[in-house]
Amino acid sequence: MRVLVAGYQHETNTFAPSKADWAAFNRGDSFPAFVHGAAMLAQMRGVNLPIGGFIDAARTRGWQLVPSSWCGAIPSAHVTEDAFERISASIMEDVARGGFDAVYLDLHGAAVAEHVDDSEGELIARIRHAVGADVPIVVSLDLHANVTLRMLREADALVSYRSYPHVDMAATGELAAQLLARRVKLGRREPIAYRRLPFLIPLNAQSTWMEPARSLYDELIELDRDFGTVLSFCMAFPAADFDECAPMVWAHGEHAEAAVQRLYASVAETSQWSSELLEAREAVNKAMALAATSAAPVVLADTQDNPGAGGDSNTTGMLRALLEQGAGRTFPGRVALGLMADPQAAARAVAAGVGSTLTLALGRAVPTFTGAHSDAPVQGEFTVRAVSDGRVTLKGPMMTGVTVQLGACACLEIEGILVAVASGKKQMLDRELFRMVGIVPEAMKILVVKSSNHFRADFTPIAAEIIVAKAAGPMAADPADLPWKRLSPATRTRP
């Protein structure tokens, strides 16, 4: 069997300050840069991305792969019309050439374009129109997909990640290959059942390293065993202002309806979806008290400036709280924050060199969902402790083996606090992102990470405790705080 493979990854926060243009899909800062043809197969094989898992599974099964395009950009506001149409055109040109028996798509599922809310559903529909009803189309999705009825209608089968942090991305590609094999063996689509939840789930409550999600996904796997289904539960990305933004449960298989009803009954219990959030100063005070007696780092998540959810990774609320509470004076050289995206500061630091002292205004004040701006840049004297070209291969459980390119980077010290500054944007989900600028995360007393949950995969093993902090930023930790305009009236913003 010959399978055309392609991918398009973007998580859209429609309330975020900046959009994903064509250049964003070509930078290679958060994801590998746009790649087409045979080079895509070589680059993606063996990496912890869905397409990597599908490639390995397909080769094991003896399938021939017909490579099209793959691209991804860091979460932000809308994908521009130009970017989406370029991505779609590249894939559709390969579809038009034919010469394949099935299609596999590595999609995110929460990409909103300027001109089409459900851009993945649009892409699947374009392919379906070109190949006809009989060619199988199988899709892997992120756990944060906002799964639409169009996606379910146009694809033969879809399957999503089962972990957050997403340590099972390649495994999900393997599941997609399983679904494709089942579809081909049956000779028709398997029965499908689905139910949408009537409420949004905050990102910080979604981690599968914690309850309730940990037990709910264990139940999902047990139900698959009992019913012979392939179930998925997307907790959704609760910052995309369109009518189908909401969690979804679905399953493929002869007993799909029974499996969905059982899982839905468990996930729809509203009282379980809560999480503790502390204001910035309160979080820093708690971290300092814990760090005084702990040998391991205390990790604080700067969740409302998470570049993995649409932030630009450049707000200064947590840095200001550290400075105001004297964290760097209490633990000199053992308090670190990252990544702070500030290309001007990074370029100046690299030009000045290690050991230099610079007067800088670090970070930016950005518009937030409240209508106000985040904290002002931090003005002060910074010492350059290390510099880097920003090219780093990730080694943690998420995106293992993926190389990112963040441009000029530096470690800047102010009042005993080390700040990992980058030219590009990348969620702090891997300890290598600290190490690339000479910061040894395991040696720190306090680590501030611009992330919501993905950091847990690589930082939990070294953390004395994890604290989630709310500093002013563009990504609302509570979906109810967002100024929704187009969300379905049937969907509540809180469980």
Give a description of the structure.
There is one protein chain. By secondary structure, the protein is of the alpha/beta class. The protein folds into 2 domains: 2-272, Response regulator (Rossmann fold); 278-477, no CATH class. It is built from 14 helices and 20 strands. The strands form 4 sheets. A 9-stranded mixed sheet has the order 10-20-11-19-12-18-17-14-13. Helix 2 (50-60) crosses helix 6 (169-186) and helix 7 (213-227) runs antiparallel to helix 8 (256-267).
Name the features.
single chain; 495 residues; alpha/beta; nine-stranded mixed β-sheet; six-stranded mixed β-sheet; 14 helices; 22% strand
Instruction: Report the sheet-strand fraction.
Output: 15-25%
CATH topology of the largest domain: Rossmann fold
Per CATH, the class of the largest domain reads Alpha Beta
In round numbers, the mean pLDDT is 96
Helix and strand arrangement:
Blueprint: E1 2-9, E2 35-36, H1 38-44, H2 50-60, E3 64-72, H3 81-97, E4 102-107, H4 119-131, E5 137-141, H5 149-154, E6 157-160, H6 169-186, E7 192-196, H7 213-227, E8 230-234, E9 248-252, H8 256-267, E10 278-279, H9 280-291, E11 298-302, H10 317-324, H11 327-330, E12 335-341, H12 343-352, E13 357-362, E14 378-388, E15 391-393, E16 403-405, E17 409-414, E18 417-422, H13 432-435, E19 446-449, H14 456-459, E20 465-470
Helix pairs in contact: 2-6, 3-4, 7-8
